[in-house]
Amino acid sequence: MKNTWALSLLLWITTTGLCSGQGISRDSVNQILKQAPAFTIYKDNYIITGTTIGETPTSSNSDVKYQISFKHRLTNASLPLNSYLFLSYTQLAFWDIYNWSSPFEEINFNPGIGLGKLLFKDGKLKGSLALQVEHESNGRDSIWSRSWNYVSLSYTMLASPKSILQLKAWVPFLYKTDNPDLIEYIGYGQATYIWKIKGDKLVLDIRGRKGTSGWKGSLQTQLNYKPFKSGNAYVTLQWYQGYAENLIEYQQRSSMLRLGLAIKPSTYLFY
User: Fold this and answer.
1) How far apart are alpha carbons 89 and 28 in whole angstroms?
2) Of 83, 137, 147, 218, which one is the catalytic site residue?
3) Residue 218: exposure state from Cβ atoms within 10 A (0-12, 13-18, ≥19)
4) Cα gap 87→149, rounded to integer Å
5) Pseudo-torsion of CA 263, 218, 50, 228, nearest 10°?
6) 207 near 223, Cβ under 8 Å?
């Protein structure tokens, strides 16, 4: 019980530090890494449902979208260059629940392994770097198979006392057989901006990608409202506009508005 309260206090300090922009000391970070669980949320975990904007909702243009994402820190003690080894896994599913037999249209699998490094300035935590090798595929065969591999580098920083900015770039490899023009639709990177409009009560997430061809790309906007004082569960409204929301139809433009529940990570800087 004593350790549980200590861990809860440390996580509260972490979240408060991120909200206030005051930063967390290096000693506090080391203590958090020693006591915090190695297995934690990576990206948002959510289940949302909605339909195509501008069309009358039907069983063919409405669906359920859900995401499961977690990471596992393999080392508590830092490696060379004060880095940490971690595994990540994200699964994104599109479920045609309103059609007869409720089939899954597609499930995208995204495992990865990486090195994370925390960044300090004047003894305070200011951001993090992550170098990863990732794979993404839909587990299909024949003409429906979609997959690609890439090395990614992401930089996450406290942009302001109430906001976090993440820049992520990738170099793809071994992907041209299934989807040779994928980069035209997703580009070579993405930018994510998280704005805590009212502390942890109301949070806005915006993620943008620019493809290499014309105006191709995507913009995902997510407004999150936390109805309870404790916990990290949110009511989420998500709008996806653009290409490559999933792999199997990456060449098709979509505009989907969905509403549901999300569980968000307590911090975006730790691995």
Assistant:
1) 27
2) 137
3) buried
4) 16
5) 20
6) no
Q: Return the closest-CA partner of residue 65 out of 236, 253, 266, 265.
A: 236
Please give the annotated binding residues for Ca(2+), written as ranges.
101, 140, 145, 178
Q: Which amino acid is at 167?
A: L
**Catalytic annotation on 135?**
yes
Residue 72 is among the residues annotated as catalytic for this protein: no
Q: Furthest-apart CA pair in the chain: how many Å?
A: 59
Give 6-37 as a 3 state SS string: HHHHHHHHHHHHHHHCCCCEHHHHHHHHHHCC
Q: For 103, how many CA atoms within 13 A lie in the half-sphere containing its CB?
A: 4
For the chain, which residues make up each domain, given as ranges? 2-263
Name, in order, each residue with C-beta under 8 angstroms of 100's C-beta and a sequence gap of 6 or more.
Answer: none
Structure tokens at 196: 């805590």
With a cut of 70, list the residues of the chain below it in pLDDT.
1-23, 77, 268-271
Which residue out of 135, 163, 254, 266 is catalytically annotated?
A: 135
Give the C-alpha separation, 175 to 158, whole Å.
34
Q: For residue 259, which phi and psi values (nearest 5 degrees)? A: -130, 140
> Class of the 2-263 domain?
mainly beta
**Could you tell me which of 47, 8, 7 has the C-alpha nearest to residue 263?**
47
Residue 231, both tokens: 């916990």
Structure tokens at 165: 């900015």
Supply the pLDDT for residue 13: 43
pLDDT in tens, 33-77: 777 788 999 999 999 999 999 999 999 999 999 999 999 999 876
